[in-house]
Design goal:
It is an enzyme of class 3 (hydrolase). The chain is α/β, with parallel strands linked by helices and 772 residues long. Strands 3-6-7-8-9 form a 5-stranded parallel sheet, with helices on both faces. The two termini are 22 Å apart. The C terminus is likely disordered.
């Protein structure tokens, strides 16, 4: 069956949802300092009167419901559904574990009376065999403190949000957790099929003896035609089909549908009952982990000690968020500058006003002697002066404050063809290969200034042989259209999108005509969207917003606009590449480091995973959704400490305890780190400050491998052959050093939270509850 993009009309959207979404947008645009539409729980409370009044209103509402005969009847219905479903969830096998209350630890990932379908016949409910450990049990009214109406409203809203997320993930070949997908299928009384799962395809590393730069094994050309319309690429079999407007059968996104889906999530994060429910569940998850840790820490440690050979130092770790231009530490850069000046002083390295100049003459024009340089005078390290000053942070990319040195040492396009930059990266790669267990995903920049950027970058990659088995490459697109427009480099935003994505379609359709780019794309695993998120933008993104072709003024498009059009192009490109058996790309933007909470809403719909995610702390609804959807988050506490958030206030430890999928990353070692093993420095500081256990560190490391763009072959080797499966069954402790007790706890807790939503929706007497 062809993959198509499901469309929604504005007439299908509830008026209340639309107004609530606009209210959230309006609050963000005004940047009010007072309490906004998000919640009493989004920021630390400093108004006891407001807290007291809110609690009194909730209490009055709950008392009124308790007196209602209908509410009593519905609560009995909840208990009956819950007891029936949970009693059926316990596998019929002899567990060697203490008896567990099913209320807090459901052991089957689906609602029992809607079994998983694996083809035309119904299969028995999935069985799950967990390790022996002390489980936390909760008995009694499991939704105490939340009224029945609010509980049902929250469950339906959260389920709709997850369905929206799943739709966009599947269309773009992004990842979506299997267990959550199974629950969503059960809500609509549909069968979950394993063959319906989608996964990204990553190019496996070249084998021993294979040439990673072989330009001979290139697929044949197809000679399709690609045309951008409204910022969306359309693929045609030939020019005649293009003239007839008959595009190939690929899923093409619809702006109106996307903005309406965005409105649903925006309305949800401003909905009072949903905020209250999510706040309570998140508090429970944090408290539950504290109890789990108290009762099972020694059992987890005992389990790890029994595993031969494996420990924290020799489990695989991936630096999931790092920029290539700052992948070295400051001492490394200083040594390299001194070495090049000492060995190549007379080399021609630049051209200025038509005159070619040597390296020695370049330094003389800057009135400096490299011999006298120190890490302090190099001045590339961030400090107190960069806190909330992104402009000063960007200036740190210029060694000694000289843009000439940045162009020479940290750019791919310059007079010497980016040779120095390539040599630095290869030195960093060599250190990674010697460490064996550390991998990294550096970002290279594509700006969209011209269509030749891609070919230039691919030729640089192949000419200087930058490939390393310990590196996977990503492309970052800075959100700086306004700068290019002001300099008259670009006529409109649509041209920027064409420069970024049309070369990729050409290399996919006619790889024999673009051999270097085709080869380079095999080693690229994803796209990133980068820039200062704290920049204010007063444009509200809706289906009435100008198309990219019509966005010809100097104002920069808002964050949500960038994300939608990047996602839309990546989605069409991935489907085309999947047809050709080529690798696909993930969308992994910077998100939630600063700025509006709406950034995280856009990423929830469009991104496979995100970097930073600090602002999730401000929205309990989004934080809970990111947990239920198991969206990976690459966090960089040392980077945040210098830019936006003090280390002690970083929510990484809190997110980890609650069960969000977090990994540690370095961001910019040149600016934030001191040692040559920046990633280990990140782990060491986090372990010391937050007193993380070995199991905690290895869980973060495992998350980083899962989140990364490493190929399926590599992940099977690093994590175990069943790494795709949920729970302890998907964990090979001999490779990950993550205790099976920890994996069972995470799995059972997630099942528990999803089952709460399922039970509420199955019992709700609401017309749209049965058909989400």
């Amino acid at each position: 069956m062809p993959r198509q993009f499901p469309r929604v009309s504005i007439s299908d959207v509830d008026e209340h949802v639309r107004l609530l979404a606009e209210k959230v947008f309006a609050k963000v645009l005004r940047e009010e300092d007072s309490k906004d539409a998000f919640s009493l729980f989004t920021v630390p409370e400093d108004c006891p009167i407001g807290q007291k009044e809110a609690k009194e209103r909730e209490l009055e509402k709950e008392i009124a419901e308790q007196k209602s005969a209908e509410t009593v009847k519905r609560k009995k219905s909840f208990k009956m559904i819950r007891s029936q479903s949970l009693s059926l969830q316990i596998p019929a096998r002899d567990w060697k574990i203490p008896e567990v209350s099913p209320i807090s630890s459901p052991v089957t990932p689906v609602v029992p009376d809607v079994p998983i379908l694996r083809g035309p016949e119904q299969a028995a409910p999935m069985k799950y065999d967990g390790p022996e450990f002390q489980r936390v049990t909760i008995s009694g009214d499991y939704c105490a403190g939340v009224t029945v109406d609010d509980y049902e409203q929250a469950a339906i809203g959260l389920a709709k949000a997850l369905i929206i997320r799943e739709k966009y993930s599947r269309l773009a070949y992004h990842r979506f957790p299997r267990i959550t997908a199974q629950y969503l299928c059960s809500l609509n009384e549909e069968g979950w099929k394993k063959e319906d799962e989608v996964y990204p395809d990553f190019y496996p590393p070249p084998g021993d003896g294979e040439d990673p730069y072989d330009l001979e094994k290139v697929p044949a050309n197809l000679h399709y035609v690609v045309k951008m319309k409204g910022g969306i690429p359309y693929v045609y079999d030939n020019k005649k089909m293009m003239e007839a407007n008959e595009a190939r059968n690929l899923p093409y996104p619809d702006l109106e549908t996307y903005t309406l889906d965005l409105s649903h999530i925006l309305a949800l994060i401003a909905d009072g009952p949903v905020k209250t429910y999510c706040h309570r569940r998140l508090n429970f998850l944090g408290s539950k982990f504290n109890l789990h840790e108290m009762m099972n820490e020694m059992a987890e440690l005992k389990e790890l000690k029994s595993i031969p050979h494996r420990d924290f130092y020799n489990v695989r770790k991936v630096d999931t968020h790092i920029h290539a231009a700052a992948c070295m530490n400051q001492k490394h850069l200083l040594r390299f500058i001194k070495h090049t000046f000492r060995t190549e002083p007379d080399r021609l390295v630049a051209e200025k006003n038509g005159q070619k100049i040597t390296l020695k003459e370049l330094f003389e024009s800057l009135h400096m002697d490299p011999y006298d340089l120190t890490v302090d005078s190099l001045d590339v390290h961030a400090g107190r002066q960069t806190f909330h000053r992104f402009d000063k942070f960007n200036a740190k990319y210029n060694p000694v404050g000289a843009s000439e040195l940045r162009d020479l040492y940290l750019k791919t396009e310059n007079y010497i063809g980016g040779e120095y930059f390539a040599r630095i990266i290869k030195e960093v790669a060599k250190e990674l290969e010697e460490s064996k267990y550390q991998y990294t995903e550096p970002r290279l920049s594509i700006y969209g200034r011209s269509v030749e950027e891609w070919d230039s970058l691919a030729k640089w990659f192949i000419k200087h042989k930058v490939h390393s088995p310990n590196m996977r490459w990503m492309i970052q697109v800075p959100r700086i259209y306004d700068i290019f427009k002001s300099k008259k480099i670009l006529p409109d935003f649509g041209k920027m999108l064409e420069n970024i994505f049309l070369p990729l379609f050409e290399a996919t359709i006619n790889p024999s005509d673009h051999k270097e780019l085709y080869l380079f794309l095999n080693y690229v695993t994803g796209f990133d969207s980068v820039d200062d998120e704290s920049k204010h933008n007063d444009h509200m993104f809706t289906y009435k917003s100008p198309t990219p072709d019509a966005w010809c003024h100097e104002q920069n498009p808002p964050y949500s606009y960038y994300l939608y059009f990047m996602y839309a192009n990546i989605m069409v490109l991935n489907n085309l590449r999947k047809e050709r058996g080529m690798s696909t790309f993930l969308f992994r933007p910077h998100c939630g480091e600063a700025g509006s909470i709406t950034h995280l809403v856009s990423a929830f719909i469009t991104a496979d995973n995100i970097s930073h995610g600090l602002n999730l702390k401000k929205s309990p609804v989004l934080q809970y959704l990111y947990y239920l959807a198991q969206i990976p988050i690459a966090m960089s506490p040392l980077s945040n400490n210098s830019l936006f958030l003090e280390y002690s206030k970083n929510p990484l430890r809190e997110f980890l305890h609650k069960g969000l999928v977090v990994s540690l990353s370095t961001d910019d070692p040149m600016q934030f780190h001191y040692t040559k093993e920046a990633l280990m420095e990140e782990y060491a500081i986090a372990a010391q400050v937050w007193k993380l256990s070995t199991c905690d560190l290895c869980e973060i490391a495992r998350n980083s491998v899962l989140q990364s763009g490493l190929s399926d072959k590599e992940k099977r080797h690093f994590l175990g052959v069943n790494y795709i499966k949920d729970g302890p069954e998907g964990n090979d402790i001999s490779r990950t050093n993550v205790a099976q007790i920890r994996m069972a706890y995470r799995y059972e807790t997630l099942c528990n939270e999803l089952s709460f939503l399922a039970d509420a929706i199955r019992s709700a007497d609401i017309s749209d509850a049965k058909r989400l």
